[in-house]
């Protein structure tokens, strides 16, 4: 890992303007609960075409708030993709709900809408329909939201998009987050994501009540709103109406997020150029390159390659060779249902074969804002050697 010119799989890009924005907020009157947070919420809503934004200290918190706002609780069921970060499932567990998964489409690696339809049909017969489905826009490419939205009307479930990878992505020509096909959409600003606020996330929605519910629960369940108070003894007064959390984003985070948001278009364009470079550089390699659906304009958060089925045993060797040669490859994702925590809840190997097969064969190549063409050429060369050394490809 300590290679001098190690190329990480993902890395934030921090400009002088980003730094100046954070310093400015640091010198201001407010380090938290000041103007930057609502400015960031408004700017992001304007960008993606949503009405209300609720900033949080992480996407994990925002997902929890979203589940609570949709009334998820004990006895409810929430379904998500097994090919995701654990937070997409954990948010439902925080609420006491049961989690289940829908296997992935082998081309996009997203939740498969056909498998969702089949599973819903079966669940209807046994009275075990989900209250909420959380599609995850894997690697920045939108799920088939039109199909999932249609199913939500037929079976009566709500939708939270986990768009942690997909800020700046478009689906059918419009930004992910505009709420056309979901109730709430959540973005992450962790440093490996498309834009960063160090830690941070945001839930966007077009529903005023959902937004208010999330905002209240992000701030200890309290309100100062005159029309909600039971009495008004003076200006010091607030009331706690429900049990909430401290999930607030700080001003420093929001200042960074806001500055990064102004660079979003550049980041996305840069990722598309890098994607095209990889396509050219990896042409003829015996691996599957990421597929891009016609109706989706991905934010390209990740560049996952897939080894051939008969070479699945070589994945560890290729991974180790890349790391040893200074290429920071990663594996996205270990299927969530195979985590010991979820196995203890009854899930097992074989439950979601597509996600498991994909996991066994995938590697993510470096993809981040400041990745240079020279670095991509080096990644391609080192990958070629690694594939040859591990007999995936002949010399
Ligand atoms: C990163 C990520 C999260 C969690 O984001 P945090 O901001 O780190 O809490 C949730 N879901 C997915 C798919 C992610 O990639």
Automatic annotation (TrEMBL):
* Residue list for modification N6-(pyridoxal phosphate)lysine: 193
Gene Ontology molecular function:
pyridoxal phosphate binding; transaminase activity
For this UniProt record, the keywords arranged alphabetically read as follows: Aminotransferase, Pyridoxal phosphate, Transferase
Mind telling me what this protein is named? UDP-4-amino-4, 6-dideoxy-N-acetyl-beta-L-altrosamine transaminase
Might you give the EC number(s) for this enzyme?
Answer: 2.6.1.92
**Catalytic residue list:** 193 (proton acceptor)
Regarding protein family, the annotation reads: Belongs to the DegT/DnrJ/EryC1 family.
Give the signal peptide range.
none
Q: Which GO terms describe its biological process?
A: polysaccharide biosynthetic process
């Amino acid at each position: 890992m300590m290679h001098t010119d190690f190329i990480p799989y993902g890395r934030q890009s921090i400009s002088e303007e980003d730094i100046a924005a954070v310093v400015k907020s640091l010198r201001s009157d407010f380090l938290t609960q000041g103007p930057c947070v609502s400015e960031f919420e408004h700017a992001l809503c304007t960008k993606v075409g949503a009405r209300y934004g609720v900033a949080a200290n992480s996407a994990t918190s925002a997902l929890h708030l979203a589940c609570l706002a949709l009334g998820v609780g004990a006895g409810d069921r929430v379904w998500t993709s097994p090919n995701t970060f654990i937070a997409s499932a954990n948010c439902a567990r925080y609420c006491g709900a049961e989690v289940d998964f829908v296997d992935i489409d082998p081309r996009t690696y997203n939740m498969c809408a056909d498998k969702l339809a089949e599973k819903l049909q079966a669940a209807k017969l046994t009275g075990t329909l989900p209250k909420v489905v959380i599609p995850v826009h894997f690697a920045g490419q939108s799920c088939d939201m039109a199909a999932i939205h249609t199913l939500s009307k037929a079976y009566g479930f709500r939708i939270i998009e986990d768009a942690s990878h997909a800020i700046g992505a478009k689906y059918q020509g419009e930004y992910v987050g505009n709420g056309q096909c979901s109730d709430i959409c959540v973005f992450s600003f962790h440093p490996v994501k498309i834009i960063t606020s160090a830690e941070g996330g945001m839930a966007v929605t077009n529903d005023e009540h959902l937004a208010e519910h999330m905002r209240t629960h992000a701030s200890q369940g309290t309100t100062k709103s005159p029309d909600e108070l039971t009495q008004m003894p003076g200006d010091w007064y607030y009331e706690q109406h429900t049990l909430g959390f401290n999930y607030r984003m700080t001003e420093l985070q929001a200042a960074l997020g806001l500055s990064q948001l102004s660079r979003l278009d550049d980041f996305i364009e840069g990722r598309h150029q890098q994607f095209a470079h990889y396509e050219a550089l990896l042409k003829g390699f015996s691996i599957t390159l990421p597929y891009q659906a016609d109706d989706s304009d991905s934010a390209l958060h990740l560049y996952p390659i897939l080894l051939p089925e008969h070479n699945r045993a070589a994945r560890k060797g290729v991974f180790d060779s890349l790391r040893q040669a200074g290429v920071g490859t990663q594996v996205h994702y270990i299927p969530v249902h195979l985590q010991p925590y979820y196995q203890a809840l009854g899930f097992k190997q074989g439950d979601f074969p597509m996600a498991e097969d994909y996991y066994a064969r995938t590697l993510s190549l470096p993809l981040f804002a400041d990745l240079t063409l020279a670095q991509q050429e080096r990644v391609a060369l080192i990958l070629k050697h690694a594939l040859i050394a591990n007999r995936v490809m002949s010399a």
